[in-house]
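Re: beginner question about structure tokens

> Can someone show what the tokenized structure looks like for a real chain? I only ever see the sequence side.

Sure, here's an example I had lying around. Input first:
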Amino acid sequence: MPKRTDLKTICIIGSGPIVIGQACEFDYAGVQACKALKEEGYRIILINSNPATIMTDPYLADATYITPLTPDCVQRILRLEKVDAILPTMGGQTSLNLAVELAKSGVLDTLNIELIGANLQAIEKAENRRLFHQSMNRIGLDCLKGHEVNSWEEAKKTLKFLEFPLIIRPSFTLGGMGGGIAHNLKEFETIVKNGLNLSPIRQVLIEESVIGWKEFELEVMRDHKDQCVIICSIENIEPMGVHTGDSITVAPALTLSDKEYQRMRLAAFAILREVGVATGGANVQFAVHPKTGRMVVIEMNPRVSRSSALASKATGFPIAKIAAQLAVGYSLDEITNDITKTTCAAFEPSIDYVVTKIPRFDFEKFEGASSRLSTYMQSVGEVMAIGRTFSESLQKAICSLEEGFDGLLTPKIKYNSSEDLKEKIATPTPHRLFYIAAGFREGIQGKEIEELCHWDKWFLDQISFLVHLEKTIKSKDFFQNLETFRYFKSLGFSDAALAHLTSHSEKDIRHRRYALSILPTFRRVDTCAGEFPSHTAYMYSTTLPFPSSINLNEALPSCRKKAIIIGSGPNRIGQGIEFDYCCVHAAQALQTMNIETIIINCNPETVSTDHVISDRLYFAPLTEESVLDIIRHEQKEGDLLGVFVQFSGQTGLKLSDILNREKIPLLGLSKKTIDETEDRGKFQKFLHHLHLRQPHNKIATSPENLLKCIQEIGYPIILRPSYVIGGKGMRIIRSEKDLNAYLNAVNLRELTPILVEKYLTQGLEVDIDLLFDGKEVWIAGIMEHLEPAGIHSGDSSCIFPSHSLSSSLIETLKKEASLIAHSLNFKGLLNIQCVIHKDVIYIIEVNPRASRTIPFLAKALGIPLVKIAVQLCLGKMISSFDLPNTSPHDFSVKYPIFSFDRFLNINTKLGPIMKSTGEVMGRGSTPESALAQALYPQIYHKNPFQKLALFSEKPLTDSLTLVLDQLKRDGIDLYTNLQTMLLTPALKGICSEHSTDKILSMIKNQELDAVIALEYDQAPLEMKLYAAAHEGKTPLYTTELHLLAVAESFKNLFSQNLFDLKSLQTVH
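And the corresponding structure tokens:
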């Protein structure tokens, strides 16, 4: 049937800040849905709290609200905008849970709002473990034996019927959060209680173990005509017991027989019909016993998922877009395939290549975390690679990780003995693949490795074969043999891997390869395995095992002016969605200038790897080899203006050296500028030449002279390596004990030269972002950090515009920023980080690239900073833009969000190493009201405890005491310890005095809404507070402004309408 005309205004709810288990795949889904529905003429209301997303760009919706994702705030917007329907399937678990709460509370009935894409009954059937099991039993599908429980007492009773190991799965949580595998009673109690606390309905499912079974996923779509299609089958290489988000996966499934696949396919269709997903997509997960073939249904997601993004990029089939169209009444046979233009969405995609996804982890950022993988997700990002064979696809994916891996052989894999290696093969960790390869090198038999890791024999045979070829490469002079050389390349051996295995350099390998015309062929992703012509330049590379007289390239370069944008690769802490935002805006700017836009990236979650964003998308590793091959190919025709490396974080900057050596123009940048700002020694000389201050520092060029530098400066110090992002390798060192711990934890030779800098305690940190056209500077924003200097800028709340700096200091900051910009050879964006200590400005860092504050600042200003920067790089002047000379009247806050709840027994104290995974934004007429809006979701409960704990190492001001007194009169119970009470006697009558241990116990037992700890820095109590807050999942705030913001949050909680919720379209 045609689209629905009874709906006028549709609301899409985003997924909020990036957290482990819910990342930028939902930005990709939201963008597709907004575009699809807006094209159909619907009025779109977008609600999300994450400013770093493309979906919150004002052009995508008619009204865009960057506001807290809480039921009360969403309800106010629904009323204000007179919404007819909510599409809850694009924003992950956050959106789904909000929709359920609004429906159950009666809000949607009161406002006559419909849920489209998935109704309440379908959501509950899929997400509620008990209802889902009942549904599967009704249609005769096998599920695991298990029991749903709502309390610890009920959980204990299940042990009469089930034996360890047991799998615990909470209901309505994302990324398996709160779940796990219990091998004994102690683990069982810990996981069950945690799962109950994290489940919104306090329900967990306790199931028999299927550890070691094979796991599969099907991405399914169904329309109102009951037409069902499988978009993609996905096979997890890791067996059951490892969360699918943490497993290496392949598409299509490679070890299923056709009979098994058809059985699974029909089961998936039956599940969607039973659950009631009638106008959209779903992800269904199965487990198969490797020996008996018993198939059981694990779960389903009645929404767009992480796997939906992977399946979309793997096939070219835009699942989110089509799900949105189905939700408003279209059927699959009425929707045209964008890639072929001749087929419809009712045709199941077919692919003639293999896709491999490998997750990216950041365990080193979480001190104390175990790297053992389990049923709850712990990875922070992922890469995807496409090849004609599994071997090629796998090795390309390994190279895409940006972890220093050139292939299966890596010096990073260490083990002490054969038994140690076998234990590592048996233990699921991020590097198990490499330990398995090491096992084959050591002569361990394939059968034993299979029994240790439970990987399918077919995958192990492929790895064994690649290891065997390593020996052949080492022993054979393939360098002169065209056929052998080509064969190795066709199996995915990178130039770097071949160099590693031989006595040649990577440059030697590349030049010889070019001389022999062993070049990659670029093929299209077309949804139909070449059966129909493709109209989209969505490309991957492959090396054919045989020479061909026919040009098999499907990506013939155009004759246009063109520019290449280097993507930011896999998400990781320190380099995430903010940089993909910048790449997308850069692409949009180039297209408006009629310049062919080419993006190279390998991250399947992102908007930038949606093939409609650029004129040509190359899904490829961001390595020297892949990037140069693509550039060489594109230079055959047209005018390649150059390459943008400054929008992709450190990934692009690291490629600048080889691009410079190959004489590829860097647009807006020079290698000299990158080195002057990134190399700590050169940067020190640069600032000295400009007579600008740095904290007292020395350059340690080797581990040997590090101690000498420290002795000259004196503790406390901060160590800053060169060419890093996210504070990698940085540390505050206060004593010799700290230094020894640091030296034991890092490979110092990899980090030198390293800046040894005096740590300015209680300094105020400031971020400056500016635009420069080669002559004129425009200061986009001076942002003031709330947390003291020494905490990574990505982990500190920041306020724009500055609220406490004097006008004279601001003018001095502008002058020094302008001096730095004029002294560097660049155009576009520049980020400067300073510390202000006793009214003296010290320059800490200069980043010759887009910073992670750019999306936030662009939303705060209403100015597309990246788009302007691209035009400046290509010759436009700042004077041609109507840029304001004054700061906004309202305040905006960027507030960091952490994923600490994914890990047990970790050190959550903040420092120079970035730990946050995401951010939210708040806006208000005062700094405290803006911050209150940002942190409000942490305070919001349907039934708040109305209890706060306060600790302070200094006397409180009268104004703060008055705020606490007002909280007391508003009904908030305040607790403090004796030390705080003695420092501020006025707290008597306001706060109840308790022992420190008593308050710590309340924090651990989740009896408080928040903890305020002022002026604590390395005090004995501080670490206990951080540990208790992590265990009790209680917000911990450390500044006076946070206290004021918490007070504002409680006011909104009680009044329900304190926050001034405005759309971006009305603000700018």
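Each token stands for a local structural state, so reading them left to right follows the chain. Residues 214-349 form a domain with the D-amino Acid Aminotransferase; Chain A, domain 1 fold (CATH 3.30.470.20).
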